[in-house]
Amino acid sequence: MTTLATGSDTLTRDALAVLQPGFDGTTAPDWVRRRLGEGLASVALFGRNVVTEEQVTALTAELRAERDDLLVAIDEESGDVTRLDVRTGSSFPGNHALGAVDDPDLTRGVARELGRRLAACGVNFDWAPSADVNANPDNPVIGVRSFGADTALVARHTAAWVEGLQSTGVAACTKHFPGHGDTNVDSHHAVPRIDVDADTLYERELPPFRAAIAAGTRAVMSAHILVPALDPDRPGTLSRRILTELLRGELGYRGLIVTDGMEMRAISGTYGLEHGVVLAIAAGADAICVGGGLCDEATVLKLRDALVSAVRSGELPEERLADAAARVRALARWTAEAKSGAETAVPDPEIGLIAACRALTVTRAGSVAPVTEPVHVAQFNPAPNIAVGDETPWGVAAELRRLLPGSTAGSFSGPDAGRQALAAAGGRRIVAVVRDEHRHAWMGAALDTLLTARPDTVVVEMGVPQAPPRGALHIATHGAARVCGVAAAEAVVGG
């Protein structure tokens, strides 16, 4: 492997400082320890790094033994996108549920309790909240990660979430600038394009980010989306017009700008990972998120060397790299100074379930017979998007088995899902669990089959409740967090 520097000079230390790599394993790898001594200032945790909170606490302690001012980042939105609760489902409802309740004090309290838990584990930087306005209900990657489709609602809850989280000394990272809500492509796979005029962008997409900035968000994450009204040539992450002129200049933002995952195909598949990283820093980003997919030492060294080479060739101004590295270190200092907030935070372990119960929307079709006997839970599984992943359990089956012993369950998908679910149910009453019925024709057809044969079927929608409510009892949870499933199951039995 060819390297360009020994790891001791200022340029190389700055190049390492702007990287926020993930890594494999549940203990601190030797290579990460080495690079922390050479200038690496941040690491990122993903689901693969998490077994228990005690294990995460031990892991972050190992890392901080090498560098006590380390930024430990995590992609913990709560709700459907969870890393801390990746194996069980989140203890907190996500943004869409909080938006459905529309109580900013509740949102602030949920984020405060999440921040307290993260801080207790040694995590001090959270890539959340999503400030995207869910303008396109068919969006394949945002959906319940958004507080809703109303700009003012999203703005007030984004601000409340930022305030709650940061009161514990954990830095918030408001995303995905300049707004990922009106897209029909997942940037994990390709470059989404938002073809709306500048007035719409300023009136609909930007107010939540303005609110987050006013609330003091310590970081903003860029989106890998092409917005021709702002920049016809480059996606947000690589656009000086969007990051430097708009976010820094017009919106007056002074904190850290971090990229979305650079290995996502919207960037790596179009520009290449190394060149994309150079372009992002040049455009105004300060920190590079990489490693949602596996990241190893070779990748970190390639990115470090690409940045050093770009400075030496004149492609990247040295002062731009130095400024970016200084912002990373400044955020680390803020977290160290603010961590006393976590130490004084009063635990509120029930707030997640309380919020999930308040978020339920229950629709009854006439007089509904109570559910008192064992049921068959038919869960209709869409393909998960990469942000959510496929590791985290969801649904109501486990809780209904507890509440109604003897209940059975099955998972179904595809054009024959309804008939298969009907056959599996036997004589039991059916609880059908869907996720974004409006986005999946096969799912709607499956419900048609069930409701024609068994009109007493209970329907639980755990995605965006865009389709009209149907079923003897219809329960919209506004998200698929574990606590949303608990709340829904209790409503089934109590309804």
Topology, please?
Elements: H1 10-17, E1 19-21, H2 30-38, E2 42-45, H3 53-66, E3 71-74, H4 95-101, H5 104-120, E4 125-126, H6 151-166, E5 171-177, H7 198-205, H8 207-214, E6 219-222, H9 240-250, E7 256-258, H10 265-271, H11 273-283, E8 288-290, H12 297-313, H13 318-338, H14 340-344, H15 351-359, E9 361-364, E10 375-380, H16 397-403, E11 408-412, H17 417-425, E12 429-434, H18 441-453, E13 458-461, E14 473-476, H19 482-494
Parallel strand pairs: 1-8, 2-3, 3-4, 4-5, 5-6, 6-7, 10-11, 10-12, 12-13, 13-14
Antiparallel strand pairs: 9-14
Helix pairs in contact: 1-12, 1-13, 4-15, 5-6, 6-8, 10-11, 11-12, 15-19, 16-19, 17-18
Q: Please, how many domains?
A: 2
CATH class of the largest domain: Alpha Beta
Order of strands across the biggest sheet?
Answer: 2-3-4-5-6-7
Outline the biggest β-sheet: 6 strands, parallel
Q: Could you say what the CATH architecture of the largest domain is?
A: Alpha-Beta Barrel
Give the low-pLDDT segments.
1-7
Helix content: 40-55%
So what's the overall shape? Answer: globular
Structural class: alpha/beta
Cα Rg: 23 Å
Average pLDDT value? Answer: 93
**Total number of β-strand segments?**
14
CATH topology (fold) name of the largest domain: TIM Barrel
Number of helices: 19
Strand content: 5-15%
Q: Determine the CATH superfamily of the largest domain.
A: Glycoside hydrolase, family 3, N-terminal domain
Description:
The protein is an alpha/beta fold. It folds into two domains: 10-341, Glycoside hydrolase, family 3, N-terminal domain (TIM Barrel, Alpha-Beta Barrel); 360-494, Rossmann fold, CATH 3.40.50. Helix content is 42%, strand content 12%. It contains 19 helices and 14 strands. A six-stranded parallel beta sheet has the order 2-3-4-5-6-7, with helices on both faces. The chain has a six-stranded mixed beta sheet with strand order 9-14-13-12-10-11, with helices on both faces. Helix 4 crosses helix 15 (351-359) and helix 11 crosses helix 12. The N and C termini lie far apart (64 Å). The model is unreliable at 1-7 (pLDDT under 50).
